[in-house]
Amino acid sequence: MLKGLLSEAFDQYVFDRVDHILNLADANDAGYSKTAREVSAALDRLLVLARALKAEHPELTGLVMDFEALTALESGQAAEISYKQGLRDSSHIHREFMTFLQQQYD
């Protein structure tokens, strides 16, 4: 039970932290911000097109919305996976660095 609670708390921390990092990136990283604006503009254009073609292809608007939701989910999951791997990597890098320093002074 404790392990489950800790896992859930950690997952929530990672979710919140990744969200915070991406919000900061949107404000402070011109490349990321530009890409986010371009994605939003492309989605807007797709929705306009889907609405214009609604009579001929009524499923298109739902498909565009599904695609947007799924790509957002995928991006969020990729960010969380990368963040968790970064945490694991940092521990390994720290150990390697400490071993290297120890060898330099022995």
What's the number of structural domains?
A: 1
**What is the typical, i.e. mean, pLDDT?**
92
Task: Describe the main β-sheet briefly.
Answer: none
Q: Tally of extended strands?
A: 0
* Secondary-structure class: mainly alpha
* Radius of gyration over all CA atoms, rounded: 21 Å
Descriptive terms for the model:
mainly alpha, elongated
Describe it.
The radius of gyration is 21 Å and the shape is elongated. The protein is 91% helix and 0% strand. The chain has 3 helices and no strands. The longest helix is centred in the C-terminal third of the chain and has 46 residues, at 60-105. The chain has helices at 2-28, 30-52, 60-105. The mean pLDDT is 92. The chain is mainly α and 106 residues long.
